[in-house]
Amino acid sequence: MVNEDIKNLIPQRDPIMMVDKLIDVDGDVAVTSLTVRDDNYFIDENGLLAEPGLIEHIAQSASAFAGYRAMASGAVIPPVGYIGEVKRFHCYRRPYVDDELRTVITMGTEIAGVTVITGEIRLGDEIIADTQMKIFIEKNS
Amino acid sequence: MLLENKYYKIVDSCGEGLNAVFRIVLLPDCDVYRGHFPGNQVCPGVCNIQTIKECVMQLTEEKLLIGTIKQCRMTAVASPVVCPEVNVTITVLPIDRGFTVTAAITDTERTYMEYKGDMIVDSILP
User: Fold this and answer.
1) Which one of A138, B8, B12, B14 is most buried, by most CB atoms within 10 A?
2) Within an 8 Å CB–CB cutoff, is residue B42 touching chain A?
3) Using CB atoms, which residue from A41, A88, A93 is nearest to B32?
4) Nearest chain A Cα distance for residue B126, angstroms
5) Domains of chain A (ranges plus CATH)?
6) pTM of the predicted model, to two decimals?
7) B113, HSE (Cβ side, Cα atoms, 13 Å)
8) Which residue of A has its CA nearest to B6?
9) Which residue segments constitute the domains of chain B, with CATH numbers given?
């Protein structure tokens, strides 16, 4: 169980904070959560979270994981990360307001500042979206 | 539309049928920049993806969902300062239940995003 305020792990702030908690870290795998609130930036007119919101949730989950590792290495503020590529993204269904997303991030090896990650969002036992992503993490920020 | 006239504004468009170019202004006062990032305005890549989706919806006159993204490359960091106006160039190919979309966000200097994936007509996904 990770007990760290998410604001210490990611540089994003309202209105585009898309992860609530880093729940667990085990080697190259981390688990995060997000409860979809009605004031979420990506809620559409039907009360559903739009697909780019799912992608941003995965990106910020990876960012929280990278922030956790940076803090463990002595960083004081969370590193800024950018999405370099989204690949093989699938949206199987969109969550509603009040749904609690549970997301598994698997972090690959970093090469020249680029890390390939995979992310899988679940709602209960159901996978609702998954993707691969390349992220750039800025050093010494 | 989630982001039209909030994150971007369409100032011109040309093309018809399966191809179009939308000229858009990135709005520097959009509230997303309060959080992305504080003191350092950077366009969220996902907002540019949503912008492409909304332009495809304008072109096709269909309410669409992103079912899959085969590949989306963010090739340069975009912001309302770096690129206040950009072109969103779109080609769509009708498929069963939707469209295969190829798109790019560019200005005269750079390409900011290259996108390919399938958008499906809303109501098919929950």
Assistant:
1) B8
2) yes
3) A41
4) 6
5) 6-137 (3.10.129.10)
6) 0.96
7) 30
8) A41
9) 8-121 (3.10.129.10)
